[in-house]
Amino acid sequence: MTQLFGQTAAAFCVMPQDAAVTRPRNFSAHLEQDFVVMSRGPKFEDSFDLDSGYDIARRVCLYRTQTAPENRAVCWISDKLKKNAFTLKYQLGRLIDEGTYAKVYRCYTNDSFEKEYAVKVMDKQQMISLGMLPYLRREVSILKQIRNASGVCKFIDFMETGDKFYLVLELLHGGSLDREFFTYEECELRSFTFQVAKTLKHLHGIGIFHADLQLGNICKVNKSTACTKVKLVDFGLSDYCSRGKKHCRCVGNLYYAAPEMLLQKEYEGPEIDIWALGVCLFKLATGYRPFKNSDAIINGKFMIPLEDEDQLSDECKNLITEILQVDPAKRLNIEQILDHPFFDACREDTNKI
Description:
By secondary structure, the chain is an alpha+beta fold.
């Protein structure tokens, strides 16, 4: 067998198809049957490598099926080995945040504590019972597709164990922009909004919309107090969009929801991201949300607080007004936003680079 399949550090079991159905928990009790077991090291649970184990077992199954079809085999990996898959590669650190469906921790690779990431840990049974698996599958698919986008939190890894899902992502040290009653200097909010708008342009251009854009999902890359780089996080509600394809779901944070979502009207996707961008800009500039409830959102009635009226430039106030249009057809599109006079300084800085 070693000559046929080569050396491996993995432990796996290949067994007749009818025996696999019983999923025996004790390998040693079945070794005298028609099984093929290969392992190196005294404890195969500790030396098990999930990817190579599956690959080699697949090759064994293929060989057995081709040479003796009547002994067709399947590969079975024990739940105990699956549960070790994440900890074989990573080690959990302290808790960063906790949401409805997941907890976010710092994590490190076992080979080097210098490689630090964030990991979103989800309970598998809860995700299944709440019908969230399709969203998770789509999130992972989208994150893989946009992993090289500069304005998006980078996808690192995704793993499934016996009872958990692990989504490993780039660790952003600066925290989110969502600070209650806190206003940013106009140079900062201009930079943040311009960066997010450029990221949205890229996403919309490849047929993806975020669907949950809010200040809590915009994070600074580092803790610098000066103007710094920001990235979008949490693509759990994101979806694919294309001209003519309509959506009709109301998801995300109510205070950032576009009127058409609350009215259960159909939309393509990018327009609801743009509305949410306007809400983000308003809150960055004033420290307050522009709308207090769903009725106010549907009517599109908002007012910039008097204490901020004189502090904000006319360009900033105009951009907010042009984005927060109830009628999506009258709302600025992403190209018009990026070309708005409010971002003249950002475009000049970009041209200098």
